[in-house]
Amino acid sequence: MIKRFLSSTAEIPDAPPMPRHVAIIMDGNGRWAKKRLMPRVTGHAKGVERVRDMVEACIKREIGYLTLFAFSSENWRRPQDEVSHLMELFVMALEREVDKMHRNGVRLRVVGDLGRFDARLRELIEQGEALTSDNARLTLTVCANYGGRWDILQAVNAWRRDHPDASEPVDEPGLAPYLSMHYAPEPDLFIRTGGEQRISNFLLWQLAYSELYFTDTLWPDFNAAALDRAIVSYQKRERRFGRTSEQLAAP
Ligand code: IPE
Ligand code: IPE
Ligand code: MG
């Protein structure tokens, strides 16, 4: 049975004071390194350490879902050398961290067009997901070779494969189970570190009604206190989902 979560456009979801799902664009590793006259990859290595901290911080705060943008479908455009280093870091992170995640009750999911990764990386992803699949404390989704447009298109194409004789067009509840993050509620809080104010082809569908938070803090400097500042900002928002303030105030 697939658990179904309320869609922010098809229904009016609740707006919990503590975000259930935090989605983060971890940006600024390169600039963090550059400021220190270090190679960009040193910034990425620091960034991996912050991932570990963020997982712990979310567990402590009983946030059920943490989604991290690790590599976009456009990041292949970077210099070959940097791309290779990022892949190595991904392999190393999986080799080192998955057992600990499992002990901590973390369920790992990696979403994106994984076919472009090499066999070793794909194998580690598969093993990590299988090992942790029954854990329920925190679902950590790593978006790798992910693009929001890719996600919507793969969902439409998968739906069409399953409904070759459909006479009606697909609707939202019909498509939702095919999106790569169907197992998670929509993000309540979106965070982008590193100062840019854009989505960069992250979760286009799922961010429809997420509260957006941008900070100049570079990802290697982002810590639990910085997460708390984002949560406080989230808690001050009025999540209207199309309604008026007066409607929200009414009993
Ligand atoms: C984010 O940091 C990590 C990835 C995109 C893999 P960047 O590498 O984009 O860092 P900046 O934006 O150049 O500082
Ligand atoms: C977005 O960061 C992707 C990830 C953090 C993985 P980028 O640094 O690639 O985004 P742009 O190119 O500045 O939009
Ligand atoms: Mg960047």
Can you offer a commentary on this structure?
The chain is of the alpha/beta class and 251 residues long. The chain has a single domain, classed as Decaprenyl diphosphate synthase-like (Undecaprenyl pyrophosphate synthetase). Helices cover 41% and strands 14% of the residues. It has 8 helices and 6 strands; from the N terminus they run E-H-H-E-H-E-H-E-H-H-E-E-H-H. The chain has a 6-stranded parallel beta sheet with strand order 3-4-2-1-5-6, sandwiched between helices. Helix 3 (80-103) runs parallel beside helix 4. It is globular. The mean pLDDT is 97. One 3-methylbut-3-enyl trihydrogen diphosphate binds at residues 25-27, 69-72, 75, 196, 198, 200.
